[in-house]
Amino acid sequence: xxxxxxxxxxxxxxxxxxxxxxxxxxxxxxxxxxxxxxxxxxxxxxxxxxxxxxxxxxxxxxxxxxxxxxxxxxxxxxxxxxxxxxxxxxxxxxxxxxxxxxxxxxxxxxxxxxxxxxxxxxxxxxxxxxxxxxxxxxxxxxxxxxxxxxxxxxxxxxxxxxxxxxxxxxxxxxxxxxxxxxxxxxxxxxxxxxxxxxxxxxx
Length: 203
Known about the structure:
Blueprint: H1 2-30, E1 33-35, E2 53-55, E3 61-63, E4 71-77, H2 86-97, E5 101-107, H3 119-130, E6 135-136, H4 149-154, H5 157-160, E7 173-176, E8 182-186, H6 195-202
């Protein structure tokens, strides 16, 4: 009997340790922050973000050329994700720093099937649950064979100059500077109101 009790205690300890290791691994994966290494010959951009035109959530065309001279924070979003509450902080960021950065959400269903809704359903969900007023785009694919051209640009250093990091889950964030260059990639777990993002916006 004592040996069974001891075995159960050991199993619980091992299980607890494995859980901690798993959460640590997930945290490190979702908390990635990458920054532009600086102006070097390797940073030659062959395509500009200002060349893209995409459909907004309301069906109107959005020409990215209108954002010249502004910082942009572009986020792939989903309605049924553990990170979905970040909508609230993204809205707060929009309200507090809208004069310095344009927030743009890109709904996608690529990770865990966590954005199954139509554009209309997504818009209603965001407004009802989080009061979203920042710019939301029509649902797209952010990875795979049908990846949207903008997200191809994000993940190709040959096109954007240095970054090859594609979204690893919902709520990954790309910060673009006033010249249309990617300056940061932030993983899903990076707080939209955290120091890393606020400091980058204020630079």
